Amino acid sequence: MIHVVKCWQHTMRISFVSLFVVLWPRVTIADGPSSVAIPNEDAVVNALVSYLEHGSEIQKDFAAWVSVEQTTTGDDFELPLVLKVQYIFAANEVDSWQYWSQGQKSSRGPENNPFWAQYLRNPDHITTLRVGVGPIVRKGEIKEKAKQNLHFRNPFHRALSDVTAIQMNRTSEQYLTRLFLEVAKLGEASYEKKTGDLLARFELGGNGFDVWIDVRFSSDKGMMPSEVVFNSMEDGKVMISNYTRTKWQQKAKHWLPTSFESFTQDCAGTVKQDLIVDVEWKVGDEAPNQLPAYEDDDWRRYFCELFERDCYDHKARMAELSAMRGLFKKSKQTEPSDPE
Q1: What residues have CB less than 8 Å from 20, skipping those under 6 apart?
Q2: Per-residue pLDDT band at 144 (split at 50, 70, 90)
Q3: Model pTM above 0.85
Q4: 47: how many CB neighbours lie within 10 A of its CB?
Q5: What's the CA gap between 79 and 65, in Å, rounded?
Q6: 4 and 111 housed in the same domain
Q7: Which of 71, 154, 184, 222 could form a disulfide with 274 if both were Cys (CB 3.0 to 4.6 A apart)?
Q8: Domain finish residue from 286, 304, 335
Q9: Cα distance between residue 287 and residue 63, in whole Å
Q10: How far apart are CA 172 and CA 162, in angstroms?
Q11: How many domains does the chain have?
């Protein structure tokens, strides 16, 4: 159960996608009278460590296709700005390689013109390949030891991250370890009587600016974090809240996050940003058994086959256009001439 506390005297309500709660401007996870004995700090630390170790184990050999739809509203936009982004992440620790890529398109840009940035790393170097798709098509450009603009991030770690951290590419095991086990202090914790879930509040900040982080570790999901709320406060007043709900599925002995629903709202209850994320995983026997070939001009094709996705194939498209041009020339040559 989620309890929410009114911030100042605002009473505006908002609803978010299919969430089972109606939220007030300030959101917290608590359970009041229905909670049972307060757990000791070790129980909370164990839940955090288990989650982080789980992500570390998955990262040894996996692939994930991440689909993101981000809707931003505000005074600067007449209409909501919708940004759709696709990510592919894959890694194999034994063979020491990592692959990650990003393609996106905006509701205000060409409908079928995503631009993909791709990175493939082995122990020796990083290779970058950029491919434009749609009306603007560019040949593959490979740069050895290139400085990447997109960092490798296991989507598993989104479950304990706020929207800002995700946007700034901070969602790593190292970042979460420092945040929850070194910087933040455990303020309070309890077990929910009805579900057995572990509810914990972490606090950090100072000098009039504080952050409360409320986390629900679900007992029926291997104590994985299913809800997290970041409340940013100034002089004791909540200025902005970030909420994330995570759905989990057990696969190949792993608990995997399959979707994230997030939003950011200010103290007046105005939603500034909605974020819907779906993740498809390949782990265990389904994980990639080799890295993409370096000589390939589009590494995505390997993962498109792995995930059975219908992806744009530049070579196939050029061959199709060439064949069409050939047929057109042939038909022109065989057209009957006008009688004299």
Answers
A1: none
A2: very low
A3: no
A4: 20
A5: 29
A6: no
A7: 71
A8: 286
A9: 6
A10: 12
A11: 2
Residue 158 included in any domain? no
Same domain, 30 and 97: no
Q: For residues 132 and 236, what is the distance between their CA atoms, to the nearest angstrom?
A: 48
What contacts 110, CB < 8 A, 6 or more positions away? Answer: 134, 135
Of 243, 332, 318, nearest to 26 by C-alpha is 243
Do residue 276 and residue 260 come from a single domain? yes
Residue 163 in any domain: the answer is no
Q: What is the rounded distance in angstroms from the CA atom of residue 238 to the CA atom of residue 270?
A: 13
At 6, the amino acid letter reads: K
- CB-CB neighbours of 280 under 10 Å: 14
Same domain? For 103 and 82 the reply is yes
Q: What is the 3-state secondary structure (H, E, C) of 175-236?
A: HHHHHHHHHCEEEEEEEECCCCCEEEEEEEEECCEEEEEEEEEEHHHCCEEEEEEEEEEECC
Buried b (16+ CB within 10 A) or exposed e, 68-105: bebbbeeeeeeeebebebbbbbbbbeeeebbbbbbbbb
Question: What is residue 241's DSSP assignment?
Answer: E
Is residue 244 within 8 Å of residue 162, measured between CB atoms?
Answer: yes
At 185-201, the pLDDT tens digits run 999 999 998 999 999 99
The verdict on residue 2 lying in a domain is: yes
Say how far apart CA 28 and CA 4 lie, in whole Å: 5
Report the b/e string of 132-167 with b at 16+ CB within 10 A.
ebeeeeeeeeeeeeeeeeeebbbbbbbbbbbbebbe
Residue 86 and residue 177 share a domain = no
Least confidently predicted of 47-51, 156-160, 333-337: 333-337
d(CA 59, CA 287): 11
| Residue 331 belongs to some domain of the structure | no
Residue 111 exposed, middle or buried by CB count within 10 Å (0-12, 13-18, 19+):
exposed
Pair (256, 312) in one structural domain: no
Quick one: 180 and 319 in the same domain? no
Q: Which domain holds residue 121?
A: 61-153+292-325
